[in-house]
Amino acid sequence: MTRFLAAAALALGLTAAADDKPAKDDLARFTGTWTGVSVNQDGKDLPKPTAEAYRLVVDGEKYTFTGEGGEVVEGTHKLDPAKKPKQIDAVRTKGPDKGEPMKGVYELDEDAFVVCFAAPGKDRPAELKPTGGPGLRVMAFKREKKK
Question: Which range of residues forms the domain containing residue 81?
């Protein structure tokens, strides 16, 4: 009986580790420096120079976001690429809305990251579009090339 329980525990541990692989893969691809391409806030496109001033630096589950005017926000995030669309949950550790969870959905490839976040306390958006009410922000980023 002890061997059976040990084998079952090992199998469950391996399954949990295997289930975590897609999230670890996306975190590895997400790590790096990203520059803003476009931003839509509450259904309105921000001016291109504003969007291009956005900068996102990701290191695993930590991020630093610099917005227009140099405002810096730091935080942590969790990715769930098994969901459709892929989901992201972020919590700021520094900056406005510190400690408030934000729910979003995202797309990620090697050189592009697009995310739609709901305002803190709001439901997760259903898609990567600024439709569904106020408080949605869609941001598109491109990966900065290493120099």
Answer: 2-143
Overall domain count for the chain? 1
Long-range contacts of 19-25 (CB under 8 A, 24+ apart): 19/82, 22/81, 22/82, 23/78, 23/79, 23/80, 23/81, 23/82, 25/81
Beta strand 62-66 pairing with 44-45: unpaired
**What would the pLDDT profile of 136-146 be if each residue is shown by its tens digit?**
999 999 999 87
The domain that holds 129 is classified in CATH as 2.40.128.280
Average pLDDT taken over every residue of the chain: 86
The Cα 96–Cα 60 span in angstroms is 22
* pTM score of the predicted model: 0.83
How far apart are the C-alpha atoms of 72 and 100, rounded to whole Å? 16
